[in-house]
C-alpha cells in the first residue's frame, strides 16, 4: 500500500503556510527529492501497529435508555470480568468515558467523537482486571473534559444524586454519581483542573488526584501531558487506597511518569493523626465566590481533626493564587496544541500513541459547530496565545510553575498536609437550555479556584466529604507532598472514622 503523494499545487500551499516562497519549478524539484522520504512512509504504512494485548473478553454492551439512566450518569454499559482472584475481587468499577476499554464505544462527552471504538485497554484497566475487578462500563463525562459543571456532555446534563436538576460537578461527572448512588463500588476519574475532586465534593464521595505521573495515563485521551492525572473515586477511604495501590506504578509507556514512588497505602489507614501537622491555607478560604457556610463546615472538620490529636495551624500560601493563574496559559494553549491541533496525541513524546483515536478525532475540524462553548472559549484563548505571542506565555508559565511548586514544597516541609475547601460552593442548579453563553461558560468554571493549582504543581490532593449545606455535600481538600498519598489517607481515614459527614 502506498500513501498519497502531494501535488505541486499542494506543496506550494504547504510552503506558503510555512512562510516559504517557491516557484513552480522549485516545487517540482523538491517533490522529486521528497519521494524517497515518502517511500519510508509506505514502509511504515505496510507494518502492523504495536497494540497492547487485550486479555479479558467482554460483551457487546449497550447504551442505557433514560428509564435505566435517570441521572444520565451512564454512557455505556458493558461487563468485563477480571481474574478470578485478586485485591479487587468482588468489587465493581466504572470508567470515565475518556478511558479506553477495547471494543466498547468511547466519545469523551463529545458527539464529534461518537462512534470511536478503542482497540486496546488502558494500562489501568488491565491492572484492575488482573486484580479481579468487574468493569461495568463507561461513565458519562463532560465535553472533552472541559467543565467543572455537569451540563456540557453530549447528549444531556448529568444530575446530582442528592438533588435532581443540580450539578454533579465535572468533568468526571458520571463517575462520582455512580459511586455516590451505589451503582458501582469504584470509579476511575481524571483531573486536569479539578475533575476528580469537584464532582467528588458535589456528590459526597472520596476522590483522589494522585501525584502527577503516579498513575499511568496510557490509553486515556489526553488534554495536556503536564496536567493530566488519573485517579480513584470511592465511597470510603479504604477502597480508595486499595484501588490506588492497584493503579499506581510505572508502565514504561507514559511520559508523565518519572521517579515514581509507590507505597503500601492501606498501611496508613489505622495510624491516626496524633502528631500530624496540618496547615490550613487561608487563601483557600478567600475566593471571591466563597460560601461562608462551606468555609464553616471545612473549618469545623479541621477542628475535629485537631481534636483527634493533629497539630492544626492557619498558614499563608500566596503562591496558591499564582498556581491557579498559571493554569490558563498552560491549560488553554496546551490543550489547543495537543488535544486539538495534535488530534489528541500531539508530538514529541515516547509512549503508546492511539492511532485509531487520532484518526477519529482529527474530524473535529469538520464539526466545529458541535464543540461545546467551554471548549471553544479555551481554544480561543489558547489559539490567541499561540498566534499572537508564539507560545511565550505557555513557556513562561511552565517556568514559573516550578516557583509555585517550590512554595507548596516549602510549606509541606513544615507541615504534613495542607487543608482547604475543595470547592467554594455546593452544587448549583444546572443552567437551562436557553441560558446565555456567559451563564453556560461561567457555570463550568466557577468552582475551580482551589483545585486547579495542584494540577499545575502536581501535588496529590483528595476531596473528603465533611458536611452538608442545605442538603448538599461539602468537600474538604487535603494536599500532600509528592508521592505522600499515604499521609492523605491517614488523615482522611481518621476523620472518616470519627464522624458521619451526613450529620455535620
TrEMBL record:
Q: Which organism is it from?
A: Acinetobacter qingfengensis
**Limits of the Amidase domain:** 72-487
For this entry, the protein name equals Amidase
Q: What GO molecular function annotations does the UniProt record carry, in alphabetical order?
A: catalytic activity
Amino acid at each position: 500500500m502506498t500513501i498519497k503523494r502531494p501535488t505541486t499545487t499542494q506543496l506550494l500551499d504547504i510552503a506558503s503556510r510555512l512562510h516559504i516562497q517557491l516557484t513552480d519549478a522549485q516545487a517540482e524539484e523538491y517533490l522529486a527529492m521528497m519521494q524517497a522520504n515518502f517511500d519510508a512512509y509506505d514502509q511504515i504504512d505496510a507494518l502492523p501497529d504495536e497494540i497492547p494485548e487485550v486479555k479479558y473478553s467482554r460483551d457487546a454492551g449497550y447504551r442505557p435508555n433514560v428509564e435505566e439512566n435517570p441521572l444520565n450518569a451512564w454512557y455505556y454499559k458493558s461487563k468485563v470480568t477480571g481474574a478470578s482472584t485478586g485485591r479487587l475481587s468482588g468489587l465493581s468499577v466504572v470508567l470515565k468515558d475518556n478511558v479506553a476499554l477495547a471494543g466498547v464505544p468511547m466519545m469523551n462527552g463529545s458527539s464529534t467523537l461518537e462512534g470511536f471504538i478503542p482497540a486496546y485497554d488502558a494500562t489501568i484497566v488491565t491492572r484492575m482486571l488482573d486484580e479481579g475487578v468487574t468493569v461495568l462500563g463507561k461513565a458519562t463525562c463532560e465535553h472533552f473534559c472541559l467543565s467543572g459543571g455537569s451540563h456540557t456532555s453530549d447528549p444531556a446534563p448529568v444530575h446530582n444524586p442528592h438533588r435532581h436538576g443540580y450539578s454533579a460537578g465535572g468533568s468526571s461527572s458520571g463517575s462520582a454519581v455512580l459511586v455516590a448512588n451505589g451503582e458501582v463500588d469504584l470509579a476511575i476519574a481524571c483531573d486536569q483542573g479539578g475533575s476528580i475532586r469537584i464532582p467528588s465534593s458535589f456528590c459526597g464521595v472520596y476522590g483522589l488526584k494522585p501525584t502527577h505521573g503516579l498513575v499511568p495515563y496510557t490509553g486515556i485521551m489526553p488534554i495536556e501531558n503536564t496536567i493530566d492525572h488519573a485517579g480513584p473515586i470511592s465511597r470510603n477511604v479504604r477502597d480508595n487506597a486499595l484501588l490506588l495501590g492497584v493503579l499506581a506504578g510505572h508502565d514504561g509507556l507514559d511520559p508523565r511518569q518519572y521517579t515514581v514512588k509507590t507505597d503500601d497505602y492501606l498501611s496508613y489507614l489505622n495510624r491516626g493523626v496524633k502528631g500530624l501537622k496540618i496547615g490550613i491555607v487561608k487563601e483557600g478560604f478567600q475566593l471571591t465566590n466563597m460560601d461562608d457556610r462551606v468555609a464553616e463546615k471545612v473549618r469545623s472538620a479541621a477542628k475535629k481533626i485537631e481534636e483527634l490529636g493533629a497539630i492544626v495551624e492557619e498558614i499563608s500560601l500566596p503562591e496558591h493564587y499564582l498556581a491557579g493563574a498559571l493554569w490558563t496559559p498552560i491549560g488553554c494553549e496546551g490543550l489547543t496544541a495537543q488535544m486539538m491541533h495534535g488530534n489528541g496525541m500531539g508530538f514529541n513524546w515516547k509512549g503508546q500513541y492511539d492511532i485509531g483515536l487520532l484518526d477519529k478525532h482529527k474530524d473535529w475540524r469538520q464539526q466545529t459547530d458541535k464543540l461545546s462553548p467551554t471548549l471553544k472559549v479555551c481554544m480561543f484563548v489558547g489559539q490567541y496565545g499561540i498566534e499572537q505571542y508564539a507560545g511565550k506565555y505557555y513557556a513562561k508559565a511552565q517556568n514559573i510553575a516550578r516557583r509555585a511548586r517550590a512554595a507548596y514544597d516549602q510549606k509541606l516541609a513544615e507541615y504534613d498536609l495542607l487543608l482547604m475547601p475543595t470547592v467554594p460552593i455546593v452544587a448549583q442548579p444546572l443552567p437551562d437550555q436557553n441560558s446565555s453563553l456567559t451563564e453556560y461558560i461561567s457555570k463550568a468554571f466557577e468552582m475551580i479556584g482551589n483545585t486547579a493549582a495542584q494540577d499545575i504543581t502536581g501535588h496529590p490532593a483528595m476531596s473528603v466529604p465533611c458536611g452538608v449545606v442545605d442538603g448538599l455535600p461539602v468537600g474538604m481538600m487535603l494536599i500532600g507532598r509528592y508521592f505522600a498519598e499515604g499521609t492523605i489517607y491517614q488523615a482522611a481515614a481518621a476523620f472518616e472514622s470519627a464522624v458521619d459527614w451526613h450529620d455535620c
